[in-house]
Design a protein that fits this description.
This protein is about 45% helix and about 20% strand. It is of the alpha/beta class. Helix 2 packs antiparallel against helix 10.
Length: about 325
């Protein structure tokens, strides 16, 4: 009897020790290549989380749509099949339509303006709105300023007339390119390279880091530096995954996110400069143009979009001053 009691006590002790040492694994996905600043940002985030939780939480990073296309990952957050994801704003409009205000062409002046908005009241308000969709918004990372790539030179809005241009499934982007006469074609990113090569589409638009890490110089000759939209990446977790963390671990995640955000943005700025030069070396013709005609052509897009909150738009514009 005494021996049985000792065995039971030992078993309970082992169980408690095992529970105390148990490691929580968070699987984090994104849609970019491993050379993209978001991948480096997630790797840094994983390091910080491990350090701040004493190794009790492990963040595993899955790049290049391994956990699904961006919309699929967002849906996975809601369903609890994906723990964490960092995605562009395009697929989020179906869940938090007010985010569309960030996708208006030329709404931001420069990076300083962007960070003031995203790290301030507007950005935090948009992250909080995700809570109603079973998602925890963690922070705003950088995909970058979006530019045009094409098979022919694009120097003015008239040069886009009839051009079959791939966009995200983003009503604001689609409306803007229709306004300048292009023929926007929403398409999942996984189909874009082949479609460009086969002539299904003529052009696309993305930040330099996306253009470079996806080798678009192989299927596009021109890169036109329009900077027509600033594209954030949004770091999020599913509520069910967030609930698996203890309060101390949630605090560690919040602190790690702030540190990783600064690192990711710095990495993005560095890589954009480096990769722009590398694109030139690969043979792409990089053109700097007068963007004023594009600004004028798209100036009224906000009034045509039903989910643009005028109050949020005013706050964004006021932040530029």
């Amino acid at each position: 009897m005494k021996r049985l009691a000792l065995l039971i006590s030992a078993a309970v002790g082992l169980a408690l020790a095992s529970a105390a040492n148990a490691q929580t694994v968070i699987k984090a996905g994104h849609g970019a290549q491993t050379g993209h600043p978001t991948h480096f940002g997630l790797q840094k985030f994983a390091e910080l989380v491990a350090a701040k939780t004493g190794g009790k939480v492990k963040v595993e990073v899955y790049p290049d749509r391994q956990l699904g296309e961006e919309r699929e990952m967002v849906e996975g957050l809601q369903l609890g099949t994906v723990d964490m994801a960092v995605v562009s704003t395009g697929p989020l409009l179906a869940f938090v339509p007010q985010i569309g205000v960030l996708d208006l062409p030329f709404v931001f002046k420069n990076n300083e303006h962007v960070y003031k908005v995203l790290d301030g009241e507007v950005g935090q308000d948009l992250l909080k709105r995700m809570g109603a969709k079973n998602i925890v918004g963690l922070g705003w990372w950088e995909n970058g300023w979006r530019h045009l790539t094409s098979k022919k030179s694009i120097k003015a809005p008239d040069d886009l007339k009839g051009v079959k241009l791939r966009t995200m499934q983003n009503p604001v982007h689609i409306a803007a390119f229709k306004q300048v006469g292009a023929a926007p074609i929403p398409m999942a990113w996984g189909e874009v390279f082949t479609s460009l090569g086969q002539g299904v589409i003529d052009a696309q638009e993305n930040p330099v880091t996306i253009i470079y890490t996806n080798s678009l110089w192989e299927v596009q000759k021109y890169l036109t530096l329009t900077g027509h939209v600033y594209g954030p990446h949004v770091a999020m977790m599913g509520k069910s995954a967030w609930a698996k963390l203890t309060p101390d671990q949630q605090k560690a995640f919040t602190e790690a996110m702030a540190e990783a955000t600064a690192y990711q943005r710095q990495t993005s700025a560095r890589l954009e400069k480096e990769q722009l030069e590398q694109l030139k070396a690969k043979g792409m013709i990089v053109e700097t143009i007068d963007i004023a005609p594009f600004q004028a052509a798209t100036a009224e897009i906000a009034t045509t979009q039903k989910n643009i909150d005028p109050a949020l738009l005013k706050k964004i514009r006021d932040a530029a001053n």
